[in-house]
Amino acid sequence: MKSSTVILLALLQTTCALANVGAFGGNASDITLVNDANIQMVSEDVRIKLVPCDKPVTGDLKNWDEARFDCEFTMKNLSSKSAEVQVGFPLSSSDNFMLRDAKNIIEKHNFKAFVDGREVQVRYVDKSSDSKFKCIFVWKMLFAPKGVSKLKITYKMLGYNGLGITQNPPYNWELTPKEVDILQSSILQSYQYVTITGNSWKGKIESAKFSLDIGEFERYLVRRGFFAYDDSHPYADKRKSSPYNFGMLYRYISPDGWKLSADGERIEWRYENFSPKENIKIQYHFTTFPRDTNALKKLLDFICASDSRPPKHIKILSPNEKKNIADTILEYYGINTGNAELKNFLKHQIWYPVKNPPKIDGNLKSELLKLSGIK
User: Fold this and answer.
1) What is the DSSP letter of 56?
2) Is the CB of residue 289 less than 8 Å from the CB of residue 335?
3) What is the dihedral sign for C-alpha 218, 223, 225, 227?
4) Which candidate, 71, 65, 121, places its Cα nearest to that of 282?
5) pLDDT tens for residues 293-346?
6) How distant, in Å, are the alpha carbons of 75, 202, 216, 253 from that of 41?
7) Domain parsing of the chain, residue ranges
8) pTM for the complete prediction?
9) Regarding the domain delimited by 2-287, which CATH topology (the fold level of the hierarchy) does it fall under?
10) Nearest to residue 206, comparing CAs of 374, 40, 43, 37?
């Protein structure tokens, strides 16, 4: 695991970040986030829809699923004087490094801004002067004395799709025991919306609503699996034997406090007197936690074959190693094992303690209890 941790960490850091609209000062290369003492963000309504790619997502960076955003903000001038404000909306995306032309980036994201129903011209700035924000779309807004304006922003973003880990940051690469290491790795698909730039306006946001459509997209992920290969794909055989192909899909969404709609198709966050502190994170982990006994056997075979020992050496797992693996899987399914060796490992996992355990296959449970020695 150590040999891949640097690469994995770098990949995790390229996850796209999307930010609230903010007040920016300066011009061109010296643009920076500022605090506007006269303009209040009265309300915001952000709607996020995750949309499957119209081509197979094969993991080779050619095809990506995307998130589409529809954002509405009510802005108020608290001053009795007219005001002109430079507004910025940062997007940091790992897929922009190939695009050097600002026009292409704007078109790629289909980024549009409307003030009081009228589309405004947007210019692109590569990054803020302090490098805290990248890919910034900038325009001017004029406010009448005590005036209120409606700002609407629409755009689309690609998510991150690659190696992942189910640890809570900051990441600890020395967790033990070693034999359960594979159970914290994943193929990760993720999206993010950064709210902190909303603090650049005067006072608190009186009302804020964030909604995320998940139903259709999650059904698609379950059908697709971690990647959508066909038999002609060069990595088809590896996919078929990969433990991620037989593992459970785990959804991680933060911050807490969201509510699921009655039909299960959408989740929502609602706030009053809102001071943004925590970004919205949407993660789907294709894990190696087995769904059935067949998947458990493939997982155990994979752990033996991938051990860092001399070539062609197949490791035989000890009874205690098998117990630790079985107990970790049982914990994932919400079954408390009391295994002291796993205490440090479990406390770093995003899924632990388990709040809504998935239903476990009866035969899988019996086999895991047998390996664990629990009667």
Assistant:
1) -
2) no
3) negative
4) 65
5) 999 999 999 998 865 444 455 578 999 999 999 999 999 999 999 999 999 999
6) 5, 7, 32, 25
7) 2-287, 291-372
8) 0.86
9) Immunoglobulin-like (2.60.40)
10) 43
